[in-house]
Design goal:
There is one protein chain. This protein is α/β, with parallel strands linked by helices. The protein folds into two domains: about 120 residues, Rossmann fold, CATH 3.40.50; about 100 residues, Arc Repressor Mutant, subunit A. About 40% of the residues lie in helices and about 20% in strands. The chain is built from eight helices and eleven strands. The protein has a five-stranded parallel beta sheet with strand order 2-1-3-4-5, with helices on both faces. It has a four-stranded antiparallel beta sheet with strand order 6-7-8-9, with helices on one face. The longest helix has 18 residues. The protein is globular and about 55 Å long.
Length: about 230
Amino acid sequence: MNILVCDDDREIAGAIEVYLKSEGYHVFLAYDGVEALQTAAREDIHLILMDIMMPRMDGMRATMKIREERNIPIIMLSAKSEDYDKITGLNAGADDYVTKPFNPLELIARVKSQLRRYTDLGSLAKKNGLYKSGGLVVDDEGKNVTVDGEQVPVTPIEYGILKLLTENAGKVFSMERIYESVWNEPAYSPENTVAVHIRRIREKIEINPKNPKYLKVVWGIGYKIEKLS
């Protein structure tokens, strides 16, 4: 697996490279958003660790540019821990967020989790089923999502949420349950993270995201995919 590490602090980038190489990953380094875009376009990258504050082009802009072309996992790295910064990073297209200084074991665990999800979304996964709600179809063999026959590009996290909810159409899942099922880790204040991904999914599958047909909120409880024939 090829991982791109983008951080303008060369010591941090180098330390992350050592951690990742010890786990058997092939690592590419970039020191600003422009270099990250160039490397992502040139190499077969499977996951990106992206710092936010960088010269020339910051991590937010670079992530949005990458999301225009690819749905590979992106984990944001930042010294900021406020909810606003996490939400901004997720809105830019990131799948996860790690605050500096980080525990190397936690970082590796998050990398492995995202790569497992990315692999499951690809051609190596086994057939598990076809889940439908009206015109929304989640094909777990081809690992793709379509709405009224049109394919919808989704990230591994978005696919995981859609599969969970569509497979259980009509059933309401709390934010905690969604987070624990999709991220495969305990949920500690998951509201902002889940809500941002739900909004992104709605923008992709709904004609009118403000009046959704498929992905509904049940106030005070959670979310569900409407059970439609």
